[in-house]
Structure formats: structure tokens, C-alpha cells
Amino acid sequence: MRAEILSCGTELLLGHISDTNATYLEQSLAPLGIDLYFVSHVGDNLERLVDTLRRAWDRSDLIIMTGGLGPTEDDLAREAISTLLGETMQVDPELEAQLRARFARMDAVMPERNLKQATLIPSASSLSNPVGSAPGWWVEKDGRILVAMPGVPREMYRMWENEAVPRLSPYTGGKIFTRILRVYGMGESTVEEKLDHLIHNTNPTVATYAKMDAVDARITAKAATSEEAERLVAEIEVLARQALGDYVFGTDKDTLASVVGTLLQARGQTLGVMESLTGGFLSSAITDFQTSSSLFIGGLVAYSTDLKAQLGVPRETLDRYGVVSDETARAMAHATREFLGTDFGIGVTGVAGPDEQEDKPVGTVYIAIEGPEGVVSGTGPGWRAGRSENKRHAALTALNMLRRYLEGQLTPE
Amino acid sequence: MRAEILSCGTELLLGHISDTNATYLEQSLAPLGIDLYFVSHVGDNLERLVDTLRRAWDRSDLIIMTGGLGPTEDDLAREAISTLLGETMQVDPELEAQLRARFARMDAVMPERNLKQATLIPSASSLSNPVGSAPGWWVEKDGRILVAMPGVPREMYRMWENEAVPRLSPYTGGKIFTRILRVYGMGESTVEEKLDHLIHNTNPTVATYAKMDAVDARITAKAATSEEAERLVAEIEVLARQALGDYVFGTDKDTLASVVGTLLQARGQTLGVMESLTGGFLSSAITDFQTSSSLFIGGLVAYSTDLKAQLGVPRETLDRYGVVSDETARAMAHATREFLGTDFGIGVTGVAGPDEQEDKPVGTVYIAIEGPEGVVSGTGPGWRAGRSENKRHAALTALNMLRRYLEGQLTPE
Predict the structure, then answer these.
(1) Are residues A40 and B38, on separate chains, in Cβ contact within 8 Å?
(2) Nearest CB to A288 within list B154, B285, B387
(3) What is the band of B384 on the pLDDT scale with cuts at 50, 70, 90?
(4) I want to staple B80 with a disulfide (CB 3.0 to 4.6 A). Which of B49, B211, B327, B343 is the partner?
């Protein structure tokens, strides 16, 4: 079933509101096994609405319209559908009675212009809207289905779930299952290269997406039953994990912070950090994980050199190797464990810019982690554009290093 | 000039991401005097992309595409444009050199598939992208203009403002001047209410936008000369500032952190923070400001009660008033100044959830600031949905309190 969404409203084209209705419907269609091919926004103009509807009618089996069902002159969804199908809108007595009753309940007189909210055409039946004045239209004609719903999100969500989805069940054969593998430490194009042999599959499909905190490899299968779809995904997941190896840090809604937090909780161990370059971002990423209070003792944002010394980084190390050095990162990790009494300490130092420091270029990053099994250290991910970007990538690299330490993928000294 | 937006990406149709790019562009086009007639989302499918492009080419003067410029096989924007125009993509030596240099800077080997990001067609010139690997395309042919930009929002915003908008100036007739007033501490609808008498103006126009870190009131004028446009904006700015008062913390690209940083620099004073609820977010917000190193000495993320005591918060205060209290926030601010030797100390404490603490509900926030003139304190902004949202709002409220302290709007005890 080929579906298409049409969002009506000049306020969308002016950017006064975002089309969250489309996002909601998109998320609902995929699991129903309905393929969505197009989304369009059209202003409140009858000619352009009819043109866009006609094209949708020609190429799609299911058209979902939102907006344009209000009582005012620029609410033109009903008029556009009637024009498209060459049918005449007529007031439906039952809908009119409901509408008048609604106004009576609110002790209000119904403006006569509202009467158009009680109209139907011969091909349309109404979709009830208990939380608003505009009923929806369910249109079936020439093997096509058109659903017109109000633009107010809470009215639309309710009408979609309670009225439209049940009517669609005869057409939604097949169940969908999706698994996301979350990958850190490889760019999107490298992930795709590694998955090249799987990406041309049609069922399950495999696709990559660059996110702020990781690259996602998404495996989606469609089958007669949920169990069968899940089994198809599981087969491909094994192959994808073989190709991506230790770079996969989690699945679905996992974050590096949640994975590290869960690993530390399982060990009953605690964490502290001392950060300069990342300036608090690393602590903040860790504390986004909701049960971090039990395992994260604290963070020390040691922006000045004196503060590093005050917190236990030896002056000698700072003087001899420089603030931006592997030795200082290690000393920071060690001082963190001492000062905070934690099982693990992370030290992150580097040059945040805009100026060079100790002849080291902007973007230099050193990370060290000290834990019960010893120390690991490494350099950061290379400079990204902008200060906050660089802070994020350095913090994520530190969390990924801790994850690999905890999972036994790194050998501590 | 009739414009149309085309957002490419199957992830849009699956609802995995919302099309915030379209909203951004819509907001930008209205003040330029460019009329937007259609917005479409299309998946990563060459045939459907070309079809949609062809229709756009037939009915619009300006087509703005976002997405589909990545290096992978499902990034098909360039291929679709080339097919539409019957032109052949060729590697541009200069773009190739830039791309290879970018990978070299990151100490990475460029996957060969990335080379397609260095291609052009005869009708296209490139739009530079200093913050990403994909340059944009600026296509002029047969009286039409097509702008293709990356889908990553921060890359797209920058390219649109710095590269595309200046090239559009011959078509937008007249000069545009925009001034944004940045507002903190009021919701968007309150800002709109206060500006009600200005919002129905047509030149300058006044519109409000809710951003992650503030509400923006955007004043835009169009006139024959830049000077005239600027004069028109200045007149309205005076009235808008009268209506909004001290809630305006800055203009244009200012952030609360940059305003506070600039005020502290002017006084030659330093800052330190002790935060628990905000978990590092406050330090991170401050260190996003690029010259923070000279004024921000450090941050103490004191997540555990013992660590607060270790850093100088009296045990008596913690025991008597509780960790989540005005008294503890004040003691944290004081201890920060003592421990870090700074002119100003901020203390933030509260209940981050998911569980209540000391019988105080999730979302309780106490903030205190101690400086040379004395102490101010207050409660936070009330609970927002989700842990990271709440951290952000509490941190921004603390920065706004410091701004008002530094600007003499608050009377320290």
C-alpha cells in the first residue's frame, strides 16, 4: 500500500509551526507495514490544494490529510476533496445535530460558518472527534482511500488511532521489526562500507544514519508475523555485528553513558572524572543517565592549571610534560581516584582553542582512564569544527574508551 | 519569486527525524520577501526524487533542497539534479583537494566513495561548507535557481546564511535588516502578548520563535537601502525593549554564557561553580564561550553529599536544612569561592529524579550566587519533561541570575 501525507496550512509554510503531525504519522505507518512515499505541505489555497491532491490521487493508494477542517474561510480541505472528486458537499443532519449539541454544552451560539464542519460528500463517511468540533472524513473511491483529519495534534492523534487505524486493518498485511545497532568510532561512510554486502538486501533492509552521538545501523524486516520479522532481523544482526566488531556499543535507545553506567552498576563500582578541555560536558553526559547518582561520585572541571595542582596533579608532571600531555591526562585520572575515592577515574586534557597552547595545535586531546585493573590512555578524535562539537566528540571518545576497558577490549597497563 | 523546499531522506519519511530544516528555511524566506508555495519530503529513491524535482522545476523559480549530499549510496541529491538537467557529474579538482585535505587534517584515509562529494555539473558552482565534508551546489539554468545543501542542520544553517542568501540578493529586491532580541524567563506566548501591538506590523515585521536556550523576538525590515532598513528596525526595537524590559539579555548571536562572560571580562573578575542537579551542564554551558579560559577557574560537580562536604559545604548545613535547600545552595556558592578562590561562586542543587529526595518533589531546584557585592538566591524554573531538559533549564536560569546580578538588576544581601 503506497501512502502519502498532505499537511495543509499556510502557517506551516511560514515556519510558525513545525509539522509534528507528519512525524507522528510517519512513525505510525512504518510498523503498520504501509510504505510512505511522499510528504507535502500546502498553503491554504484551493487551486494548489486540488493540484496536490490530484497528483496524490494518481500515484498513491492512501492519502492522509491533516489540517484545513476548521470553520473559517481558509480551511479548505473539504472543498478541495469535493472538487477533486466532482462531488457536492451537503450538510449531514446527524453531524449537524452533534455540532449544535456541542455548542449548546458550551453555552455558546454556533456561528453559521461552522455548519460546514457538518458536511459530507457521497463518498465520505465521518470520523468522530470527541475532543474538537471538526469530524474527519474517510473517503473510499476508485480503489483509493483518503483520510482527512484536523490539524490540532491531540485531536488528530486520537482520531488516527481510534478511528482510522482500525479501518485500515484490512490493508495492512505484515508486521515490522526493527533493530538499531549503535556504532562509535567509525564515520558513517566506513560503517556503510563494512555493511556493503547487506545494504542491498530488500528484506530485511539495512541502512545507516549519522546521529549526534553515534552512527546507527538500522535493520528492518517485514513478515507475516512479528516473530518471523524478528527472526529475519536476528539473522542479519549476527552478520552486521561480525562486520562491525567492537565498534558496536549498544542497540536501540542505548547511549554510551547508559552502557557505561549499566556496566559499572553490574560491577558495583564508582566513577569520577577530571576534565579541562571538555569543560563539564563529560560529567553532563554521564549524569544524563538516570541512575547515575549511585555510581557517579563527581566531576572536577579543572580549567586552570593551578586548580589541577590543587586537586592533586603533581606540579612536576605539569611542568615537565606540559598541561596538554599523555602524562598529565594519566596524572589527572590518578588524582581523580585519590581525591574522589572512586574505583575509576578519567582524565581529559587538550587545547580547546581559539589559541594554541604549549605549541600544541587547537584540537589536541589526551584521555586517560585509571581503574582497578590499571591504566589505559589514548588521544582524541581529531579536531571538529567548533568548540562545542569538539567537546562532545572528546567526551564521547572518553566514554567509549571506558566502555572498551569495562568490556575487556583494552589491555590496561 | 516562487520558492519550493524539497527535503530528502528516507529517515524523514520513517519519522526517525523531524524536518526542522524546512521550518528554519520557512522562517528565513518570509523576511526575504520570497513566497514559499510547497514543501515536500522525498525518500532516498532516484526515480521519485527526479519526479519531484521535475515538478518543482516546472512550477517554481527557486528550489531549495536539503539532504542527500552525503558520501553513501543512498545520498542521491547530486544524481537526481544531474538526471533532471541531463548533465554529467565530474570530479572538480579543487573540491577534491579540499576534501582530501580535510581527511588528512583528521589523520584519516578518505574512503573512495567520498569522492562524489567533490563533483559538480556544468550548471553548478559549489557552496563552501567549512564545518562538514559536503559542499553545496548552486545551480542556475533556464531562469531557475536550485540550491542543494547538506541535511545536517548546523552545516545547512551556516551554508544558507553565508553562501546562499547573499547570492539571492539580486532577486529579493530591496535590502533586509534583521535584529533578534533574545529573551529569557518568559514563555513564547507571553513574549507574543507583550509584543501584540507590534506583531501586526507589515514592515518591519515582528515574530517570536522558541529556541532551546531562549525566546527570540525577530524584527525584520525591508527598504531600498540597508541604512533605511536598519533605521526602521531601530525604531521598533526601542518599543519592543520597552515592552520586554530586563527579560532581554542580548541580541542576535548572544548566549547567556557569552553575555555573562563579557560582563565578567569587563570587570576583570573570575567565576567558579558547584553543581549537583545540573551535573556538569552549567560548567559546559560556560565553557562553550570561547574566551572562558581566562575567567572560568573551574567547576565542581558534587554529585554525592560526601563530596559536597569534602569541598567545604558545612556538614551542619547539609544535616539541618537538607541537601536540597536554599541554605545548601548558598553554602555551595560560598564554598566554591573559598575552594577555587574566585570572585563569584554559583551553587545549584535540586532533585533530578527519577526518585524524590528529602520529601522534595522531582524538579525542585535551588540556585545561589555569592559575589563581591553579596548573595542572591532563588528557585529554579519548575520541572520540564526529561532529565536533560531540566538540567538545561536550571543551568540557564543560574546564568540569567548571574547576568541580572552583574547588570545591577538584583539587590544582593
Answers:
(1) yes
(2) B387
(3) low
(4) B49
User: Can you tell me the distance from the alpha carbon of B294 to that of A42, in angstroms, rounded to the nearest whole number?
Assistant: 51
Out of A40, A42, A280, whose CB is closest to B283?
A: A280
C-alpha cell at A138: 474517510
Answer whether A189 sits within 8 Å of B113, measured CB to CB.
yes
DSSP one-letter string for A14-26: TTSS--HHHHHHH
d(CA B364, CA B206): 35
Reported as a single tens digit per residue, the pLDDT across B248-302 is 999 999 999 999 999 999 999 999 999 999 999 999 999 998 777 789 999 999 9
Same domain (yes/no): B359, B323? yes
DSSP A72-122: STT--HHHHHHHHHT---EE-HHHHHHHHHHHHHTT-PPPGGGGGGGEE-T
B7 and B142 assigned to the same domain: yes
Q: What is the residue range of B350's domain?
A: 256-406
Strand partners, B349: B366
Name the residue in chain A with its Cα closest to that of B155.
Answer: A385
| Chain A residue with minimum CA distance to B108 | A382
**Cβ contact (<8 Å) for B72 and A192?**
yes
Across the range A176-188, mean pLDDT stands at 90
Q: Is B413 contained in some domain?
A: no
Residues A233 and A263 both lie in one domain: no
Percent of chain B exceeding pLDDT 70 equals 98
Q: Which of B405, B406, B401 is nearest to B378 (CA)?
A: B401
Q: Could you tell me if A181 and A316 lie in one domain?
A: no
Q: Do A26 and B10 touch (CB under 8 A)?
A: no
pLDDT tens-digit map of B297-343: 999 999 899 999 999 999 999 999 999 999 999 999 999 999 999 99
pLDDT value at residue A385: 64
User: Cβ(A390)–Cβ(A363) under 8 Å?
Assistant: yes
Is residue A350 helix, strand or coil? strand
CA distance B166 to chain A (A): 21
Identify the residue among A287, A288, A384 best suited for mutation to test binding to B, counting B beta carbons within 10 A and taking the highest. A287
Give A388's contacts in chain B (Cβ within 8 Å): 288
Amino acid letter for position B355: D
B119 and B161 together in one domain? yes
Confidence of residue A358 (pLDDT cuts 50, 70, 90): confident
A304 CB neighbours in chain B (<8 A) are 297-298
User: Is pLDDT of B134 > 70?
Assistant: yes
Residue B17: closest C-alpha in chain A: A23
Residue B312 lies in a domain: yes
Instruction: Note the pLDDT tens digit of each residue in A365-384.
Output: 999 999 999 999 999 776 66
Whether B298 sits inside 8 A of A300 (CB atoms) is yes
